[in-house]
Design brief:
By secondary structure, the protein is an alpha/beta fold. Helices cover about 40% and strands about 15% of the residues.
Length: about 400
């Protein structure tokens, strides 16, 4: 059944595969009741922004969902795809960019395309599943360093260098800008400084950083001031952009190589025009309305400081991702989540292995620019009540509450 599937008799349709209904906003419907939702990666609140809805609808009315037909290399290229790529590249400070059909598939395919059997990979131990699955396709040698541990990273780079000297290949270091479960930032300044000692290139997955981090929302490298030292920058449209797809940005030569060699794009239909027009509008709003990101961080700071004041452990998050670490077992955490949803109308997600390392359990909250300070107050109040129950052992049961 797998590590998650073993709980499916209790979880299916409730903890896993839950159905949130209604318009995408902080308050949605779950099992017939309104809940205050903290589980959507709609960081900038653009999913239901009126200008976004208008752009999506007008593009769908004009083009339908089929145009352009075919893969981009054959018959699916349009000037709007190119316009989106040009604007994305400029925004993140790269020469060129390539729009991808899906984020997860995109990262996996980038890894598969740029690495040869003689190359060597160094990567963070808590890298996202799309990175891990991409590396499963890689036949060469790889070294994993302990999460954000620069001493370990240095050691792995030294080992990778010796290996590359034997194979004649290059070294690629893969990490994330914002780690999506813990919310901590990849140590990009220290990693890029290691280029002074070792010869390697960096592939960065900034799915949770694009739109949320940096002065202008251009991502975690902008936050650290190291975008010029990131060789290949990747992000998805599924988070801050509230859409479908993704992009990769780098030197023009690298992007052209990917365009002609990424099998997941060469042999797949082009991203439909409504998604492209919609992405252009979302990018425009991200760039021209800084108050959206400012409001996001107002909500983030209020929520995280409130949880810490109550004694909850939210780890080392430096981003909107807000984990609440639990010390009990799966049943205890599940019973707490059940109580939050059923009796206090607070919907957040419970995360267990293999999404996070074994032995950890966390409740993950995702604040957005669409939330209000009143939403935060309501949530903090509910958490304060369940915190008392938690300390009193009210959730310490052998069985998960029956759904």
């Amino acid at each position: 059944m797998g590590p998650i599937g073993q709980w499916q008799q209790y979880s299916h349709g409730y903890f896993s595969f839950p159905k949130l209904e209604g318009e995408i906003k902080p308050r949605m419907i779950f099992r017939g009741k309104e809940v205050l939702t903290w589980s959507l990666n709609n960081y900038l609140g653009l999913a239901n922004h009126p200008e976004v809805r208008k752009a999506d609808a007008e593009a769908a009315a004009q083009f339908g969902m089929a145009y352009p037909m075919g893969a981009r290399m054959m018959s699916g290229q349009t000037r709007k795809h190119e316009e989106l790529e040009e604007k994305l590249a400029k925004f993140v400070g790269k020469e060129s960019a390539y729009v991808l059909n899906f984020g997860y598939q995109g990262m996996l395919s980038i890894i598969d395309t740029i690495l040869g059997r003689n190359d060597v990979v160094v990567y963070d131990s808590e890298a996202h599943a799309c990175i891990i699955d991409g590396l499963r396709l890689f036949p060469g040698k790889r070294f994993v360093y302990q999460h954000n541990d620069m001493e370990s990273c240095h050691k792995m780079l030294a080992m990778a260098t010796k290996t590359a000297e034997k194979t004649g290949g290059g070294i690629l270091l893969i990490t994330e800008g914002v780690f999506g479960m813990a919310g901590d930032l990849g140590n990009l300044k220290a990693i890029t400084d290691l280029k002074k000692e070792f010869k390697f290139r960096i592939l960065l997955d900034d799915a949770h950083g694009f739109g949320t981090m940096g002065k202008h929302g251009a991502g975690t490298p902008e936050h650290f001031g190291v975008m010029d030292k990131i060789d290949i920058y990747f992000s998805t449209f599924a988070k801050s952009m509230a859409g479908i797809g993704g992009f990769v940005a780098s030197d023009e030569q690298v992007i052209r190589f990917l365009m002609y060699n990424m099998r997941s794009q060469i042999f797949a239909k082009s991203l439909p025009m409504p998604m492209v027009y919609g992405a252009l509008k979302r990018l425009e709003l991200l760039q021209t309305h800084p108050e959206i990101k400012e409001n996001l961080w107002k909500i983030v700071n209020a929520l995280q400081s409130g949880l810490k004041e109550m004694g909850f452990n939210i780890g080392k998050t430096q981003s909107p991702v807000t984990p609440v670490y639990m010390t009990g077992g799966v049943p205890e955490a599940a019973n707490m989540v059940f109580d939050l949803r059923e009796n206090y109308g607070i919907f957040c997600s419970m995360v267990v292995y293999p999404v996070i390392p074994k032995g950890q359990i966390l409740l993950r909250l995702i604040p957005t620019a669409a939330h209000t300070l009143d939403d935060v107050k309501e949530t903090i109040k509910a958490f304060s009540i369940v915190h008392e129950k938690l300390l009193a052992g009210k959730y310490d049961k052998e069985k998960i509450a029956q759904i």
